[in-house]
Amino acid sequence: MATEQQVTRTPGAPDVKRLVRRGWARFITSLFLRTLIIAALFLLALAASWRSVRDVPLVEVYSAIAILLTILGIYRYVRASRLVQCARVLREYPLEFRERISWKAAKDEKDGKVFMLVIIDEVLPRPFRVRAVNALGRRYWTRGGQDGVWVAGDLAFGGVLVLPATHELLLIQPAKWERYAEERTEAGDERVARAEQAGLTQKVF
């Protein structure tokens, strides 16, 4: 009953297909802009190299920046797999509204910026701590979440969190993965199979 009341007093869940399409559109736009910047820097370096020997340091600067951006771009866009992961989760689990999230901290790790969050809702036995990464690899925290969020998944395994204000997709997993090992082991066949289809049976980040 509590869940039904929560759903009736909140906006309808976002369209899953539209969420995924918007995520890919943002990814492609960012990739296109970054590619333009890198191409422009290489052209500037080439143009400077044609002018005179005095511009050699300038050539090196442009080239170094372009190469650095290329490396960072490759590293970031390898993370596009997270969009694929989010799409898998959203195919397997419905979006459910949760009352709010509490932002606790952000850490720089090998997988990028990891946000430490607490999901709070009356249907949960207790506040649930999760680790979250932006599906697009963004390192800043976008607004939203204090007035509620959409969550898809099985919290013991992980899932996807959607911020209503911006429709940002965040991949989430338990803050302490090992703590829920027993629950995952004892989960029924249907629950485990569903998590496997969503790609949530292994620690991702």
Secondary structure elements and pairings:
Elements: H1 2-8, H2 16-51, H3 56-77, H4 81-92, E1 96-98, E2 100-109, E3 112-120, E4 128-134, E5 149-154, E6 158-162, E7 169-174, H5 181-185, H6 189-197
Antiparallel strand pairs: 1-5, 2-3, 3-4, 4-7, 5-6, 6-7
Helix pairs in contact: 2-3, 2-4
Give me some keywords for this one.
alpha+beta, 205 residues, 2 domains, 7-stranded antiparallel sheet, 7 strands, 6 helices, 44% helix, elongated
Overview of the molecule:
With about 200 residues, this protein is α+β, with helices and mostly antiparallel strands. The protein has two domains: about 15-80; about 95-195, no CATH class. The protein contains six helices and seven strands; from the N terminus they run H-H-H-H-E-E-E-E-E-E-E-H-H. It has helices at about 1-10, 15-50, 55-75, 80-90, 180-185, 190-195; strands at about 95-100, 100-110, 110-120, 130-135, 150-155, 160, 170-175. It has a seven-stranded antiparallel sheet with strand order 1-5-6-7-4-3-2. Helix 2 (about 15-50) packs antiparallel against helix 4 (about 80-90). The protein is elongated. The protein starts with a helix and ends in an 8-residue tail after the last helix. Residues about 1-10 have low confidence and may be disordered.
Question: What is the strand tally?
Answer: 7
| Helical amount | 40-55%
| Tertiary shape | elongated
Rg (CA only): 21 Å
**Roughly how many Å apart are the termini?**
35 Å
**Oligomer state of the chains in this structure:** single chain
Mean pLDDT over all positions: 81
Structural class: alpha+beta
Output the strand order for the largest sheet: 1-5-6-7-4-3-2
How many helices? The count is: 6
As residue ranges, the low-confidence spans are 1-10
Largest sheet: 7 strands, antiparallel
What percent strand? Answer: 15-25%
- What is the N-to-C succession of helices and strands? HHHHEEEEEEEHH
Instruction: Provide the number of structural domains.
Output: 2
